[in-house]
Design a protein that fits this description.
33% helix; six-stranded antiparallel β-sheet; alpha/beta; 557 residues
Length: 557
């Protein structure tokens, strides 16, 4: 058995040895070095000697210089062409910056009823000075002062000037006025004064001299023999002077000597720090508006010649109908909203409307804006003399303040409107104290709403942007947008119940709206509700009854 295995193993080993000896050994071939040499027809680079020949050859030197100079000439030409294109190519027109009287707001007050500094029962200039910081914090950039000059009341309560060059001594001294102007300038607040140019007190020197028939002043007023309706007999002169519908003697504004005297008044007060003059009545300058224009243009020319860039202005901020007010701008109004007559004109306030709702507000604004001359810059007043919004619609105080600050117009406020004051009195001081103290504690007040809007008023979309104003389901919806800037939307719910609006189809609106401020009627002097959403979808915007809200958003163009 063992032999068989041994024989078997022996055969296997001899077979393997035979296979290895019979297998063909592989050949190793060494390539010849000559096969790596390039053939004669392959590309060969220039030798150093050849390159040097080209570098020194006059022809190639000239060619290189031509190419070098040509490159730089072409580069300079392209640079010049680029500059020319930039300079002369049509540009997207950027809006002219708004000046102080277009930005507003204008804050109208009677110094005598504003604040009393010496407890004599009458407001004064020192009392006004004490409130200037409050005005800055509130966002006021212009004060409009009435009944400033030394004067006396006429028989029917009309205010008649005794001396155009003097401050009413009950309000303060010339030194007080100079101090006021200094403090205003430090805070960059402008001042407009009311200037009654068509009437004076019977105690005015001009009237006394005219009554005595002094030659220079004999025709300063309107005189006739008969004391007809609207005329009052003057014993010394033996003639009647014209009073019109009032009780004060009317100046003859057709008399060039009177106009010259009034020009002296303007220059005196501009030298004393006044930035603007309000002239409401000038009927004695002519029987029609066309007849009165030469007088207005003369006054305007005097103001314009005093300074450049419309830093001193002429306004007429009385409560006028649209039909009457539109003619006071003049026909030629420039693209920067400057007319040839008055810079700004006042309209009948919104509070005078028979009914206050979304439709009436839209109608009021559309009627005002459509009647304006092209490029004319309007004013907007929610309240008027004797018709404060807080008295007629107290729950709309915040809403109308918001509206006033968002429309493309100069807002005119009567002092205390920011607090919800319902009457012209010094009671506003206590209201101010209560609300500013509450605001410092983080509580909601009319004052916190108003003051929070001061920066909003100066946003590009508010000063220059497009506006859409519509009634949607009983709610007033106002949208302001300008490309490249945040958009703003004011919604006022005039309904007596909570209302939810779907605004996603509103032009330029975004999917989401961020809440900026809400009216506070019904929640005044309380802390803001932390559960109120800060952002809402434009498809579902909910407002409580009589509530107003302002949202911001990224416009979609």
């Amino acid at each position: 058995m063992g032999d068989v295995e041994a024989q078997s193993n022996g055969h296997t080993g001899s077979d393997e040895s035979k296979a290895l000896t019979d297998e063909k050994v592989p050949e190793v071939k060494i390539a010849s070095a000559e096969k790596g040499k390039p053939k004669d027809d392959e590309f060969k680079g220039l030798t150093k000697e050849e390159l040097l020949r080209y570098a020194t050859d006059p022809f190639w030197i000239r060619l290189r210089w031509v190419l070098f100079i040509g490159f730089w000439l072409i580069w300079v030409a392209m640079l010049v062409a680029s500059v020319v294109i930039i300079v002369y190519a049509p540009k997207c027109p950027s809006p002219e910056p708004k000046v102080w009287w277009q930005k507003g707001p204008i804050y109208k007050l009677n110094v005598a009823t504003y604040k009393d500094s010496d407890s004599d029962g009458k407001g004064d200039i020192k009392g006004l000075i004490g409130e200037l910081d409050y005005m800055v914090e509130t966002g006021i950039n212009t004060v409009f002062l009435s009944s400033l000059f030394k004067g006396a009341e006429g028989g029917n309560g009309d205010y008649g000037v005794i001396d155009y060059m003097s401050i009413d001594p009950e309000l303060g001294t010339k030194a007080d006025w100079d101090n006021l102007v200094s403090e205003l300038n430090q805070r960059n607040i402008k001042v407009i004064v009311d200037l009654p140019v068509d009437r004076t007190s019977e105690q005015h020197e001009w009237f006394e001299l005219s009554s005595a028939r002094e030659p220079e002043f004999a025709d300063f007023y309107l005189w006739q023999d008969a004391a007809d309706a609207g005329w009052t007999m003057q014993a010394e002169r033996g003639q009647a002077f014209y009073v019109g519908e009032g009780a004060l003697p009317q100046l003859n504004l057709k008399n060039e000597k009177v106009v010259t005297k009034l020009e002296e008044v303007l220059k005196h007060w501009m030298n004393s720090g006044v930035n603007g003059f309000n002239i409401n009545s000038f009927n004695s300058a002519g029987d029609s508006m066309a007849d009165r224009q030469p007088f207005i243009k003369k006054i305007r020319s005097t103001i314009d010649s005093y300074s450049e860039d419309e830093q001193h202005i002429l306004v007429s901020l009385g409560d006028r109908s649209v039909a009457e007010a539109k003619d006071l701008y003049g026909e030629a109004v420039s693209e920067v909203h400057v007319g040839e007559l008055f810079h700004l004109v006042g309209f009948t306030p919104l509070s005078a409307e028979a009914q206050l709702d979304a439709d009436s507000v839209v109608k009021y604004w559309n009627g005002l804006s459509s009647a304006m001359p092209a490029n004319a810059w309007p004013t907007f007043s929610a309240s008027g003399s004797g018709s404060r919004m807080a008295a007629s619609s107290p729950d709309m105080t915040d809403a109308m303040n918001m509206l006033s600050l968002l429309v493309p117009a100069t807002p005119v406020f009567i002092y205390g409107e920011e607090l919800g004051l319902s009457e012209d009195s010094m009671n506003w001081i206590q209201m101010q104290s209560n609300q500013t103290k509450a605001a410092a504690e983080g509580l909601q007040t009319h004052y916190t709403v108003f003051s929070s809007l001061q920066e909003l008023r100066h946003q590009e979309a508010i000063l220059f942007g497009d506006m859409e104003l519509v009634n949607k389901d009983g709610c007033l919806v106002l949208v302001r947008v300008k490309k490249g800037n945040p958009g703003y939307i004011l919604i006022v719910n005039f309904n007596a119940q909570t209302t939810t609006l779907d605004l996603h189809e509103t032009k330029n609106i975004a999917e989401n709206l961020k809440l900026l401020v809400s009216s506070v009627d019904g929640v005044e002097f309380s802390l803001p509700d932390p559960n109120n959403p800060k952002s809402v979808p434009s498809t579902e915007v909910t407002l409580e009854a009589r509530q107003a809200r302002i949202f911001t958003f990224v416009p979609v163009f």
